[in-house]
Amino acid sequence: MKKSLENQLTMCDMLPNGPCQMDIVVDQDVRRKCSSYKICEKPEKLDDHDGLYSFVQWQEYNRDLLTRSIQGHRQSNEVEYNVKRAINTLSASTDKSMLDTTKRISNSTMNIDKWKVDMFQSLRNIRNEIDLLLLGKKKIQIAQKALGVICSISTECLERRSFRLEMDLILDPGQIELVKENKLINEIGELMCRTLCQINDQINSNKRIKYRLEENWSNKDQVFKIDTLNLGLNIQSPTIMPDVEAVKNSENACALSPSEWEASNKSLHDDAQQIFNDSVNLRNYVDEHVLNSSAKQLRDQADAVDITLARFISDTQRISQAIENDLEHVVQRLGDAENVIEDLLRVINNIEKAKMTAETRLHNRLKRPEDDNCKDSAQLSLIPEVNNLNEQLKTLNYQLQCARTGHLGLIEVRSQLEHEARIKRKTLWIDCIRCQRVRAHYPSQTVLIGHY
């Protein structure tokens, strides 16, 4: 500061020592002493004339007075010329310097405004991405709730179908599709959990870059306002004021060069653009692969389960109807067999009575006395009759045994058919009443992609 003050020109430096120095340059470094004229200096009085001046002294004094007055006028003209010349030269230099500084500030303001617009655009994009990611996160959460409902439905169907009995507890196509559906549900559930973690990480990255962009944009907005205010300042502005520490503080405060400042802004803008692109790619991945693709896979698998389950129910109903028809026929045959057995028993009973009648006759005829107990025609007829009746009883008893054996077989068949009918009815109840009804509450594809 001391050196800069020493280099400044004083008004005395602009004054020449004589007329020959009229063309001297005002900003030379050679210093000159100010010229001084003793205009008001009086001559000394004579000692031997009672304190009076001599006539010669009076004449010289007047002549010197006029001479010095002329020289004063000349010096005044020279000073006025040099002052005007200095004013014009320094004013032009100052105006040129201020104009150059104003242009530089204007260029800096335009550059700051450009970066300010770019940063604001990036900030707006990041803010929109945060809102869209939060919306995507909400969609996945809705889809997860729907997936929980699907998981409950699939688990319910698998558990209920495990209660099927005996031969109906099979790995039918519907069971295979239900197992595939359960596996698909688990895979999609894991995918949604991973995607939620990725969305949360991306939201945190967006918020961090958003904070940096807001801070950067706020700084640039402040700088833009400061430089805009500086552009409006001139020597007639009422707000200008001296600050002797401004230069020193400015030299100590400037930490980055223009190239480093430009690189810092570009780096931040590139980071924001990269995070923005990552966020857009993640959103597209969520919409296309996680939500839409998963919803389509789940709905296709649900349709496959419903189709195979309906086919198995149809086959079971057909078999159940055949069993019911066969059971009805067996019951009818059982009735017929019982009627046959009753008829056989009635016939056997009659033949036995006829046999007993014949045997009684023979027994009574054995009581005939002496020669009257002969083998007459009646006697000869009764003996074959009894033998014939015995043969008939043997045949009828064999037929009765066969009828009873067939009847027992029909009873066993009826019992087995009734058991199988009960199994089929339980299978149909599980598949129709439990599985199909609960699968009627399967979420729609609109819900699976995250919409209410």
UniProtKB/TrEMBL annotation:
<feature type="coiled-coil region">
    <location>
        <begin position="334"/>
        <end position="361"/>
    </location>
</feature>
<dbReference type="GO" id="GO:0060271">
    <property type="term" value="P:cilium assembly"/>
</dbReference>
<protein>
    <recommendedName>
        <fullName>Tektin</fullName>
    </recommendedName>
</protein>
<dbReference type="InterPro" id="IPR000435">
    <property type="entry name" value="Tektins"/>
</dbReference>
<keyword id="KW-0175">Coiled coil</keyword>
<keyword id="KW-0969">Cilium</keyword>
<dbReference type="GO" id="GO:0060294">
    <property type="term" value="P:cilium movement involved in cell motility"/>
</dbReference>
<dbReference type="GO" id="GO:0005930">
    <property type="term" value="C:axoneme"/>
</dbReference>
<dbReference type="GO" id="GO:0015630">
    <property type="term" value="C:microtubule cytoskeleton"/>
</dbReference>
<dbReference type="InterPro" id="IPR048256">
    <property type="entry name" value="Tektin-like"/>
</dbReference>
<keyword id="KW-0963">Cytoplasm</keyword>
<keyword id="KW-0966">Cell projection</keyword>
<dbReference type="Pfam" id="PF03148">
    <property type="entry name" value="Tektin"/>
</dbReference>
<comment type="similarity">
    <text>Belongs to the tektin family.</text>
</comment>
<keyword id="KW-0282">Flagellum</keyword>
<dbReference type="GO" id="GO:0005634">
    <property type="term" value="C:nucleus"/>
</dbReference>
